[in-house]
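Section: Multi-chain targets

For targets with more than one molecule, the full set of components is provided together so that the structure can be written out for the assembly as a whole rather than chain by chain. Components appear in the order listed by the source. The example entry contains two components.
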Amino acid sequence: MNSLFQTNIKTPLLAVLLVFATALVARAQGSRIQMTSLDHLAAKASQSVDVTIDERLMKVAAKALSDHDADEREVKQLVAGIKGIYVKSFEFDADGQYSAADVEAIRAQLRGPGWSRLVSVVSKKEGNLEVYMLMEGEQIGGLAVISTNDKEFTVVNIVGPVDLEKLAKLEGQLGVPELGIETTKPKTKN
Amino acid sequence: MNEDYLWDKSGQPDPEIQQLEEILGTLRYQPKQLVIPANLAVPRRRRYVPLLAIAATVLLALLAAGVWLRVRVGHKSQPQQANVTTSPKAVEEKTPSRDTVAEGSNPAPPAITIARNNKRRSSVSALKQREREEALAAKEQLLFALRLASEKLNLAQRKTQGTSPANQIKNQHRIG
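Its structure, encoded as tokens over all components, is:
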């Protein structure tokens, strides 16, 4: 009887815990894009960049950022809530080294719930650029950028809350010349 | 000699046998209660042996856990490195089209180079050597990734500003 009672209690409890854990994992991984489908492009690329910074490495990197340096202090504040940054970038010597399916594999993930396309620029001359945001309530929960042109394919994925204005300002810091563009705070509509 | 005496003590006993019986009779078993002398020194059982065994087991377990953790950390830290690979062809041609990857004019080593000064390094001086190396590598990756994201965002903004006179990102819309 006791065993039966324990079994009856344990089963729903385990199910609830499992659902709760799955929801937590899904929430944590919600803005993470799977980019392994692009790995095959590395063989064709003249130059490829693969940056994988998970939550642990984010903390490690944050330790190395100085509080005394203004630029690094700003970066430290920017990455405080970020759970991961993932970059895959390929440069090719010739045109047509990646397919539309490669781009679509990434884009399809960004059609999921919560994701909004903030910017989509299509240019035959300069290539295409798409910026996506994952909204979690009023907060940005993630960012994804797809940049493509004839000889380049780049995907940037930031997991966690990010301040776009501060991020845009970074280009003019840390030794990188600014493009001289005024930043405007994007208004999001869901 | 009557042998029945030897068998069942019947008949006439042999005097020689009787004498032997009297002599050996003193050694006959006589049941009596066991009395332990009060001054008898009983050797005490060594109690530290089990404790020593437990301590040795714990020590071995800790040692094994330490080795396991060290090996695990070593395995974990290895694959989490940024990979910037350049094909031999590209190296020969030396056409660094991405200034964010090979900053300055030194494209030969395919690595992300970020300027660091001593002031920045001082913030991690307290860390151990290995942790410091990992932290600096992670920092380089982080800065590179952030700059790339920043560059793309600014590029998007520049392009949208170019297409829209209102200087704002207007073509935002929700998908999914």
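Chain B is about 50% helix and 5% strand.
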